[in-house]
């Protein structure tokens, strides 16, 4: 999969003129105000600041606009205000004109500007030095004037566009000059109607002034003629690569782009290259929609869209994501949402634009878009794995070479495990030169990266190269270092999103709905994802072509494929293994936590379905801080460990590669049926591992099993402590009674009823105290929140300890949104607050 397009620059989201095409000067007018000397910034990187002349006491001001701020001048009376803009020429502005000169930008004229006979826009006719060009309006029509070194006119052309310029209209105007070819054009666009126009080609004789040292003046000529209205995003570029067609494309592409619209709900200006909801006095709108500038598309295969974003689960969100495509930047396909797996649904055309919705349920918080990526997934020359060959990809993900002479090609893949490729190729094969370390190799839709190359020579002098490659997802091992992170009753999606943050991968389909409270101490994305699958259950699936990671309850389907001796099965071995069978399973959580208090005093769960023997082991649940979730996890693991590991290893042929046997297709994770009369076998089981021989599909090795093969996260240091834990809690009631040295809560034991507490639904229980005779209790009711709260004012400390004794009876969540826990709201000295929820179930 190749990265086709990435949108991560400010101009991608605002529609401003790209800085790379304004190398000689760029004035966006996004300043909050002029500096102390009356200047506004130059964004080209050359620091050619533009001076706002005669602005004090006038209507001149920086106003909110559609592409950030705009400069407004001479609104009341230009003849008395006399405000204009000036860029002082240091003598180098026009020293290297090159093949093409561009000068232009956006303007919003008033009736004064379009109604007068002469209205200067941008010129070099005022001040020291001979002029070079003059762009103006003549009775509301664009006019271009060019000069030679002596100051004589060599071109004076007024043009009539197909539409009239009006008061308040938003126009893009640019003049294009080719000094060597002696041609010039005017490009004009009307934002309101979306109409664009290019003047006829205007040819001139003579030589454009190569030694112009005149200043650039905007909005004034000869201290007698003035412009009234607004300017925005003005630029000039010497030796430009852009043509008039490129400028029309820019105009058409900028029409819908809205990240710079300061009156809109999204903001791509406050943090360059990042899009958020637009803040107004600390408040964000609840929803905003971003329209991006167009980007190149033209895919060689299928496309996939990925958005890198920052969000708070359940509070802020980015999506849905929609796309529209076009071949000419004028006629666009309908907006359509991308598929759930990120695949592009819009037709494959030359250009693509994106529509992304940002939302928040808390107006003090906003989601953020970091970048938008479009990937090109080239179509493989092979549709099925059987008899296919490795395809070498170049750095852009395109085909480079098909290795027809590769042999011993084996793909080894396992559910929740390895995914590797190995093959041999003659050393003197002409295509051996395409293979190098870290090169990408495509097998049908999967992509692998070459890790080792081993060149060998046997006793007969035969030279060969052995290639070993790993699936692309192995690179997640080298992700940005992950710090310790706490998850409070979060679903798997949240942990997976944290793991993939800062990578090119995204969370795909997750239908495992468990919630876990745990602390991640793993240091890379892949190890965190493996841990998530272990804690939540399910099959972790890496979709390399689409850069997606799925967590599925079960990966695969009931394929209906049958394996039988003398049909498609050459040999079979059945292994029934009870070495790891467990009937009583303990779990040790964070700081010695057990679930004995919620499990009838037992720190273990049992399952004697298969064996009546007491066979004990212990799970390392040191990342768990919630006994309910730890008990649920332990029960999930015991359901696997309490049965024998029954596996089948067979050599079989993939019949689906043969014409007429397509219905015998199967894949990793699928359920298949195995029959052998001699062994008395007739069982439906699952393909959990395969060593697929691409060149010889009849020599494929399958491993079939209905259970996991290992104990998972059992830790040896706990294996011998189960007996001492039986019937005990790691924290006794006596320990709790002594933990009250600095209690800031008043009436924490309910000795004085509900005094000092703000109560909603709790009551005092006089019969069940822990460190006293009373306690607080509440009976849960569907669709109702019950709470009690108290505000305390502690002294400044670096840390605080929160402790409580919690008991429950028949506790059950009625929905995924139910919560049981303690919420702490911290108010800091600056008045800001932070809420932290400690999940107890």
TrEMBL record:
Superkingdom of this protein's organism: Bacteria
TM annotation in the entry: none
Any Pfam family hit: Prophage_tailD1
Domain Prophage endopeptidase tail N-terminal: residue ranges: 390-471
Annotated ranges, domain Tail spike: 473-717
Protein name: Prophage endopeptidase tail
